[in-house]
Amino acid sequence: MTQQAEIQNAHKLKKHIIWQDGRTPDPCVIVLFGATGDLAQRKILPTLAHLIHDHPQPEKICIVAFARRPLDDDAWRSMVLTSLDKYMPADDKLDDAGKTAFAQHLFYCQSNFDDSEGYKRLGQFLAKLDQEQGTSGNRLFYLATPPDTDLEIIAHMGEAGLAKPMPADANGKQHWVRLITEKPFGHDLESAQKLNQEIARVFHEGQVFRIDHYMGKETVQNIIAFRFANGIFEPLWNQKYIDHVQIVVAESLGIESRAEYYETAGAIKDIVQNHVMQILSLIAMESPAEYSADDIRDEKVKVLRAIRPLTPEQVAKQTVRGQYTAGMQDGKPVVGYKDEKGVSPTSTTETYVALKLFIENWRWADVPFYIRTGKHLPVRSTEVTIQFKRVPHQLYTPSEITSLTPNTLILRIQPDEGISLKIGAKVPGASNQLTTIDLAASYNSAFDIELPDAYERLIADCIIGDSTLFIRRDEIECSWRIIDSITSAWKQMGSETVYPYAAGTWGPREAETLITEDGRKWLNPA
């Protein structure tokens, strides 16, 4: 059971609002490609069930599976309800009436992804739903498919005319067609550019919603509010007052059953290229002209452009990659990466990355951004730590400040979403002994509102056409330029530079050196 669920059991939290103020969702059909796959069954369908059940709207939303298995509507509905029982959180499960109601939203269209006739049948079926269910010609196509099938699916959709919105109705009401694509968005800059080019042949950029579930997390969204709605922090948010920034995405699990994917991706492509770069750009961006999708994404792109591709010499000095070996995780023995099923015994794929990056602009000149991510680390946690510079003149003697640390601001993205600020304070009593205390706020306790699931928020935003939390084409390509400069240099470095670390530890010793040689230290999540 999640921490949020435990809190809810102790005290029932108020429901969040998922539909934006003044934005009523249009009726639509959500076409789910790869609907029988793991992502759809484990995450997307339970999210849609929660969205429709807990945030009902008068307008009809239908969900059409487009998949290879020879199923009919009834068999498909039975499969979905089984998945809901298995994957929905205990406090979220639907009762029998809820299941019956949700099943009426589900329909099935069988086809292989390479069958052009199947896409024509899909178009005809959607037109039928418009007539029978009142979905008004609005389409949301969701690619929950292996990335190597995306180009084929998109090309067939274009040939079948599925990407074109229907003409406006008699009342002038415009119809829409939108596409959600999942990460990874390519595997390097060249493949990302090719993917974007092929998508652009069929869909215009305003129709494309590249989803990164981290952007749906409340704490990530609150980075903008925290920075630009509080007058006490923005004046300090620059190289004059900030010593350095740390971003950690720690995972306590190993690769589980993802060896085939992970062997081609590694930690830098799986986490850094997308999740970390999105968080970094929000932390470092300038204030947008207004709170709009394009203005915010314009500022994020400027940050990524200000991170220059690394030279091979810089890669050698500013990056560390590691691979977990056998160790103990939560008191249980676990095997090393090379002993995982499906992994080559000579693999040099990194399961851990530590980076030092610089943003070359006026705000962040000479402020290092230290990044860490890895599998089989001691805890599961995602945090951003802003460490401020020490006071210019210390009034107290060294013996009086032995427990005093620099001011740090910590934004906890998961699992216990919240914010904490560490400040210096005097210990009660006659002495002048100083120590560090924590001013902390948990989102659950601060708002008394349940946090929306990241996918739920993002899917709801796509339905109403708000692309603020989705990734634009130029963001993807700028991010890949940085990552490619690192991975291309790694290919020229020997396997001995993939440093081992025992599962259940915080990474290889070389990662410690990366930061300690700058006179700093890693700040590990509790």
From TrEMBL:
BP-aspect Gene Ontology terms: glucose metabolic process; pentose-phosphate shunt, oxidative branch
UniProt source species: Dictyobacter arantiisoli
NCBIfam families the UniProt entry points to: zwf (TIGR00871)
Gene that encodes it: zwf_2
Residues annotated as binding NADP(+): R68, K183
Name of the featured protein: Glucose-6-phosphate 1-dehydrogenase
Pathway: Carbohydrate degradation; pentose phosphate pathway; D-ribulose 5-phosphate from D-glucose 6-phosphate (oxidative stage): step 1/3
Residue ranges occupied by any Glucose-6-phosphate dehydrogenase NAD-binding domain in the UniProt entry: 31-222
GO MF terms held by the record: glucose-6-phosphate dehydrogenase activity; NADP binding
Its EC number(s): 1.1.1.49
Binding site for substrate: H213, K217, E251, D270, K375
Pfam family, one: G6PD_N
Enzymatic class: oxidoreductase
Keywords: Carbohydrate metabolism, Glucose metabolism, NADP, Oxidoreductase
InterPro entries xref list: G6P_DH, G6P_DH_C, G6P_DH_NAD-bd, NAD(P)-bd_dom_sf
Family named by the database record: Belongs to the glucose-6-phosphate dehydrogenase family.
Entry annotated with the keyword Oxidoreductase: yes
Catalytic activity reported: D-glucose 6-phosphate + NADP(+) = 6-phospho-D-glucono-1,5-lactone + NADPH + H(+)
Residue positions of the active site: H275
GO cellular component terms given for this protein: cytosol
Role, per record: Catalyzes the oxidation of glucose 6-phosphate to 6-phosphogluconolactone.
Domain of life: Bacteria
Glucose-6-phosphate dehydrogenase C-terminal domain mapped to chain residues: 225-522
